[in-house]
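Supplementary Methods, section 5.1.

A reviewer requested that the exact input to the structure prediction be made available. We therefore reproduce it here, unchanged from the version used in the analyses.
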Amino acid sequence: MSRRFVQTVSSVVPRLYQYSIDEVFCDLQGTTVPSLETAALLRSRVLKWTGMPSGVGVGPNATLAKLSNHIAKKFTDTGVFRIENAFDHAQLLSEIDVSEIWGIGSKIASKLSSLGITSVADMLNVDKALIREHFPITVQRTHAELQGHRLIHPWDDGTEKQAISCGRSFGRPVTTLHELTEAAAEFADRATTKLRAQGSVTSVIQVYARSNPFSAHVTPYSRSRTIKLIRPTDDTREITRVVALALASIFNERVAFTKAGVVLLELDAKHRMQTDLFSAFSLNQKAEAVMSVYDAINKKFGRRSVRLGRSTGKKNWAAKAEHMSMRATSDWQSIPPCY
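The structure derived from this sequence is encoded token-by-token as follows.
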């Protein structure tokens, strides 16, 4: 459903950045259609093509667009709102808590409150010298964006992440190395897919596993292993092999594991990767071709259409999903029968 949502939005706007599973930032620079018309079209098309209601906020920068989105959902009947100049909406902004500003978390909101800044309007009108004195550069940028400057560009964020992590809590305790390795192989597969998607390679792999830290009857067990690779790679097969070796060294048969994960560290762009005299260029080309086909098949036919043998088990360790919502717009089996 998230993929359908993003595809629907991309059919209207030329450029977007997916911020979460159900939220995107759209860059309308260079478009000729008025922004409110585009916003109305987006909302109606998302509802028609996915069945999901949505709110659309328009602004000169990401912070004001996010704030407009909040207002569109909470204060309007149309689900669309635009802020060109925040000072023109001072009365409305005085009714919105400062914590609703994008980038203002509970701790920062609490500190702002201690300084007498409790609403969005207060934050808008506060002297920038006070913000500079008490808060880091991220809050200073947010304050500047509220006043109309454009300093935060979400679509340029995360193009080269410094680390990629994938881990899950298990649906039931795992006590065998086979099941633990199967789960870790699944996590390694997901992490390396993200790694290749951003065009990076990893030089360091960290694997961790732990028992229930809140158990009153058993001493908590938590171990991790970090391995430095001889040469950087984005090959799922090689990374999964290393993960399995690392996991074997921290496994304890007397422990019931409740969570495990894989972290890829020291990432670098693949085009900057430096090989060595002992690397077989032809083998590297073959590995790249295999992973390219691997990703293409999974993208076309769905995740896990092709996977490594280590992660082909029954996934008895998977998190429970007994109360999932029906997916009547994307799954034939979820369509309610009519008699």
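Strands lie at 15-20, 23-27, 56-58, 80-82, 164-174, 200-211, 222-233, 257-269. These observations are discussed further in the main text.
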